[in-house]
Amino acid sequence: MSTFDTWMAFSNFSSSVQFKNRYIIDPESQEFLDTLYQTAKQRIEILPKEGKLYRSQMGNDSRKSAIDENDFYLYPVPFRKERMLPRRNITKEGRANPKGISVVYASNDVDTALSESKPWLGSLISLATLNIRRELRVINFRTAEPFSKIFLNEPNDETKIEKVWSDIDRAFSQPVATSDDRADYTATQVISEYFRSKGFDGIAYRSALGKGYNFALFDLESINVLKCALYVSDDVTYSFSRNST
């Protein structure tokens, strides 16, 4: 069975592509990616044609409604269908894409999609229902382990594989603050491009903001917008626990 050299393999890979070699992958990083591919056989998921996903964006359009022949008022409506999809080659960087390479971020659950827009109380949010136009083959990075484990000694091969995939799932799902001095998304972007080069249509990963999960789809033509609706955030709740470290 293919396995990783260490349970810290993702951490080592992330450091390498962030701070050493980003565009010319070194042999150790290439070996990590190849091992990741070899251990991905049980993580291939098929999204069926005509399946539904959801994508949200903060904000809305407005429409005029006449009060009388001299006056009118504006009322909020969701963004237009074309506004709810990313523009090709015009995009900021994200978990699965560098700046300028567009992917479609979406969720399998309405509430998760709405939460991913990070609304504040009373926000208006446009939600698009997406239709999957063809069967899509994606890599599922979701794991059952939401917390990071630390090992004093190298565990067995199966545990190392679970640990590495769990670390990657966390890296995809955790929100990262925009920063000018850190390449926070580099590792997940490189992993996404690697699986894209292997012929996959996207990736799936856990959401840190909802009960559903998220997708990054590489082909903008693989989906279309069926309809758009407007939502308002009725409640924003945070829960806190003390860090034991």
Concise account of the structure shown:
This protein is α+β, with helices and mostly antiparallel strands and 245 residues long. The chain has helices at residues 9-19, 27-38, 110-115, 157-173, 186-197; strands at 44-47, 52-58, 61-68, 71-77, 104-107, 124-132, 136-140, 202-206, 213-217, 223-232.
Tell me about this structure.
The protein has 245 residues and is α+β, with helices and mostly antiparallel strands. Helix content is 24%, strand content 26%. It is built from 5 helices and 10 strands; from the N terminus they run H-H-E-E-E-E-E-H-E-E-H-H-E-E-E. The strands form 3 sheets. A 5-stranded mixed β-sheet has the order 1-7-8-9-5. A hairpin with a 2-residue loop joins strand 3 (61-68) and strand 4. The longest helix is centred in the last third of the chain and has 17 residues, at 157-173. The two termini are 36 Å apart. 31% of the residues are buried.
